[in-house]
Amino acid sequence: MRNAFNFRRKKIAQLVLGSLFVAGNACAQTTIDVGTAQVGTGGDSSTAYGKESAPYVAPTQGSLVSTQPQSIISQQYIQQNASATSNYTDIINIAPSVYSIDPNGPGMMESQSGGPYIRGFSDGQYNVTFDGIPWGDSNDFTHHSTSYFMAQDIGGIVVDRGPGDASNIGDATFGGTIAVRSKDPLAAGTFTPYATVGSWNTRMVGGEFDTGVMKNFGDASAFVDYRKAQTDGYLTNAKQDRGNLFVKYVKPVGDNTVLTFVTMQNTIHQNVPYGATLSTIATYGKNYGLSNNPMSQDCACYNYDEIRSDFEYVGLNTTQGSLKIDNKAYTYAYYHNGFNGLGVGINQPNATAATIVGPNAVANAVGDVPGGAMFMNYRSWGDIFKASESFGKDSLDFGIWMDRQNNVRQAWNTDATTGGIVIDNPFGGGRIMNDSLTTLQPYAQYDWKATDALTVTPGVKYAYFRRTLDAAVNQGATGDPLNTEQSWAKALPALVAHYMIQPNWSAYAQYAEGFLAPNLNAFFPAKGTTTPLPGELNPESTQNYQIGTTWKSRQLTLSGDIYKIDFTNQATKVACGVYTCYQNTGGVKYNGVEGEATYYLGQGFSLYGNYAINNYTLSTPGFLPDVAKTTATAGAIYNQGPAYASLIAKYVGGRYGIATDVNGNPIYFGGFTVTNFNTSYEFKNLGSWAKDVKVGFQINNIFNYNNVYDAPTNDSTTGEAMYFVYPERNYELTVSVDM
Predict the structure, then answer these.
(1) CB-based contacts of 2: which residues, under 8 Å, 6+ apart?
(2) Which of 206, 420, 501, 703 sits in a 20 to 30 Å window from 389, CA-based?
(3) 263-267, 405-409, 428-432, 545-549: which has the minimum mean pLDDT?
């Protein structure tokens, strides 16, 4: 029986690896080569190189099978280095050409400056996938990092820098893909409670239960993980209270099929500041976020979010002869109730008699605080079908992605003091909108083995987007009704070549086109107009050229690439208060070079570094905000036996902010370096009550860099830029017990 059971598990492992490769041409995490992260072992690479090796300890590394620049971040690195409250946005900050900052502390607030940035592309200009499923807001393709997955359930992340081959699906493929992979259930039954305490009254408690492989249930396995996290945050009165549940169930069906079910449930209450002017910082301190003054628009009592979200999918991986199939049917939702002071900044005036306009108007009473309220509720339903048919050494990959997101959005002005709705308030109007986005992306590509070492893959993807808008009160200058729809479509060719120079050394070259439909705000009329002109709703598009190489051995991982991107009709974020606005900056030419390496010195010691240069040239005079020309990382790692320690410094080069000064001039921010220290020790076999106990200690920003790093918007009254300051040095202690 034991031999039969082992045989079945080997077949299952082969099946999952093979099927994920089929699915993975479209999602970066599945191009991970064996030896970097093994499916079913939680990212452990010891069977290929051993734990005392560069591929095992590398914070980021390339892939020998990848056909574009990518950085693999393993589960082992995440478990040892990620803050307990962190999101994927915090974890990927280490990768080349990437920077991401949570101004309230790790995982304690979404980036308020358009990040994370990848090669200068902001959130909304690249994909984020979870187990290969693209997700995000349909209105602008951005992502709410605090409302979905947490570090404890992530089995690895791959940062793909580029549009990928034809099988890479998603709304924003041209800017790249952040591919997050869920971790796998453990092979043995285990209960793991854990707890964290840290700076700013941060605390988290949680527990994970793994069933192990259940022989009486057809070798099924599962885990359930729940955590409750609370923090006051670095910024004043910017609290966060979050609960997160994650469940994963994996069931083999025979020797050739695996079923997977995943569900995630998240709730969050958070107070969200928008930055502070220099004068406010000088008066109240660098960490000023919100006040507790009920007579002020920036009171935390008026600026908060209540959000519920969920994510579910059912996956089928099967091999039938020479045909491999990977299918995922999924749904996810986001329900957001938001409240805010009507203006942005501490200087906003309260209501006066002048706010009462119109014969039937209802307005703020004199001296009351004007506020705003909104809700945005949406759900997506979709399916991803991927297949691969082998023809000798060659293969044909084909599939289709279908997604429909329905979104209901309303906003209105309030008398925040009384909670009443305000009508005809000159501070601004509201919105009553129903919109939808339908996406359809079929693809096909052929892997031609020209030689045993060279594979050439031509392919094409057809990207189709259809937006509908039924607005009784349309967001924009007029607030008039608007009922309209528009579609965009384009065939996107790709051609990649991959060459295995040696078994541990590969190279690739890629040409691919990218395409992104206009955001929903393209339907919002500008001042002085009543409706957008269809000819002005032009999609963004790119032509990408990339070459690169990866080397791997026990002692060294080394990757490098050169890229060139021709970008047309780019939309760039600009400051406009509590909303996100865009302007068309025309054509942009990007080019750069990137590299990353880990060197294993021996006796558990390793050195790590990455470096990237990201250049751009605009077709018209101007600048792109938050494009750091240079990013770099350097660090030392010790990993031997039960002990782990890392000291890693990240440098982000100079860049312009989003906001401007009072005269409309751009604001330049110099480069900065932040260094983090992590250490942990695992006590083994303590007795019958516990298998293992792990204690981890973390110091973020060890040298206490604490300066302004960006200006995301302007004060509504004074026109002054509003800044965020990098969070000061902070600490975290985590204890987990395997029982």
Answers:
(1) none
(2) 501
(3) 428-432
Rounded-to-integer distance, Cα 5 and Cα 11, Å: 10
Contact 380/402 with Cβ under 8 angstroms? no
Distance CA 37, CA 209 (A): 23
Within 8 A by CB and 6+ apart from 284, the residues are 236, 276
Question: Would you say residue 160 has pLDDT above 90?
Answer: yes
- Domain parsing of the chain, residue ranges: 2-738
Cα–Cα distance, 634 to 642 (Å, whole number): 24
- Quote the pLDDT of residue 419: 78
* Statement: residue 708 has pLDDT above 50: yes
CB 573 within 8 A of CB 125: no
Single pTM value for the model: 0.90
As a dihedral over the C-alpha atoms of residue 35, residue 38, residue 43, residue 48, rounded to 10 degrees, the angle is -30
Alpha-helix runs per DSSP H in 210-363: 278-284
pLDDT tens digits along 117-126: 999 899 999 9
Residues 495 and 535 sit within 8 Å (Cβ to Cβ) = no
For residue 579, what are the CA distances in angstroms to 40, 342, 411, 582, 668?
Answer: 43, 11, 12, 10, 22
Protein fold of 2-738: Maltoporin; Chain A (2.40.170)
Query: d(Cα 388, Cα 447) in Å, to the nearest integer?
Result: 10
- Give the pLDDT band of residue 43 (cuts 50, 70, 90): very low
CA dihedral 64, 65, 70, 72 (to 10 degrees): -70
Q: What is the rounded distance in angstroms from the CA atom of residue 374 to the CA atom of residue 4?
A: 58
Helix (H, G, I), strand (E, B) or coil at 539: coil
Q: Distance between CA atoms of 295 and 417, rounded to whole angstroms?
A: 8
Chain centre to alpha carbon of residue 38: 23
Neighbouring-strand partners of residue 681? 643, 695
Cα dihedral 568→569→574→578 (10° resolution): -120
How many CB atoms lie under 10 A from the CB of residue 529? Answer: 12
Burial of 596 (0-12, 13-18, 19+ CB in 10 A): buried
* Tokens read off for 258: 């695996």
Specify whether the CB–CB gap between 363 and 425 falls below 8 A. Answer: yes
The answer to whether 648 and 675 are in contact (CB under 8 A) is: yes
As beta bridge partners, residue 642 has none
Q: Tell which residue, 37, 38, 36, 29, has the closest CA to residue 9.
A: 38
Q: 175 with 514: CB under 8 angstroms? A: yes
**Confidence label for 409 from pLDDT (cuts 50, 70 and 90):** very high
Paired residues of 618 in beta bridges = 588
Q: Which of 180-189, 199-208, 212-221, 655-664 has the lowest mean pLDDT?
A: 655-664
In this structure, the chain runs to a length of 739
> Which pair of tokens denotes residue 631?
């990013």
Q: Cα dist. 168→400, 444, 642 in Å?
A: 10, 11, 39
At 36 the pLDDT is 33
Which helix (H) or strand (E) segment holds residue 231: the answer is strand 221-231
Summarize pLDDT for 257-290 with one digit per residue, the tens. Answer: 999 999 999 999 999 998 999 999 999 999 999 9
CA distance 671 to 651: 7
Average pLDDT over every residue of 574-591: 63
Token pair, residue 707, equals 């300066």
Query: Does the bond joining 493 to the residue before it have cis omega, within 30 degrees of 0?
Result: no
365 pLDDT above the threshold of 80: no
The pair of structure tokens assigned to 416 is: 């925040």
Helices (H) and strands (E) in the chain, counts: 5, 34
Q: Residue 27: pLDDT band by 50, 70, 90 thresholds? A: very low
Which one is predicted more confidently, 352 or 96?
96
Mean pLDDT of 707-723: 90
Predicted pLDDT of residue 30: 35
Q: Is the pLDDT of residue 693 over 50?
A: yes
